[in-house]
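Quick one: structure for this chain?
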Amino acid sequence: MIVLIILGIILVVAGITLKDNANPLSKFSGTIRIVGFLVIVLGVFSSMFKQIDAGKVGVKSLYGNVQPDVLESGLHVINPLLDITIFDTQTQNYTMSAVHSEGAQEGDDAIRVLSNDGLEVVIDLTVLYRVLPGDAPKILKGIGENYTDKIVRPITRTRIRDNAVYYDAVALYSTKRNEFQQRIFKSIEDDFKKRGLVLEQLLIRNINLPTSVKASIESKINAEQDAQKMQFVLQKEKQEAERKRVEAQGIADYQRIISTNLTDKQLQYEQIKAQKELAASPNTKIIFMGKNSGSVILSDK
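Got it. Here's what it folds into:
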């Protein structure tokens, strides 16, 4: 739009210059001036309309003076002299990672911190945030458009380093990870809010420990697993021993009852019952009875 206005002014000036000139093009000076005026009008008319896309707001400034109200999404009629700066109010993310292709910046951009026990811990992190629409003029006036590099990145890295010193390296890696994440979220959230930004989520993607510490942790985990395995084996053996003891006690009780209550008549009855079962077997040929009963020979059917 400004380009059209400038172009129209140039055409008008050129038309006026050619009017009093002996140049062969002087006969077109009137036409050139008319075209110039039309271009200026078109430029002014176009500058009066500004479309703001969804999820964005426009911050108005006139000769460097930032105005407090913002343009919401939609079509607006504005002063052609206003300069409109667009701010994205949708959720944005900023990733700092040791993997070269994942971070917002090229190369290893992970955060290196010192833990409470003096070990270097490498943290990969993603910050989800957005701009408060009503605070966009304050951001433009106090910070500028590049708020990501001026606010998001340095505050996040600083707060993580400030809070990591309260934890041991192994605790950061395991038991205290969620606590650490909540702690730095709170501190970063407060800093962002003062500057017109909303921290939506803080994602600790990875925590890398020194190689020696990793080896120590793995050795400890293996030892704990071996101890749990041995405990399981001992428990199983104990249960098996208890089962055998109960079984032996049952046999002993049975034998005691039999030896106490068994009579001659009962023995004779059991003998006859066993002989009948043998007689019913197809493989049985001869059955020997007791001393007083003789013997019985059974032939095949």
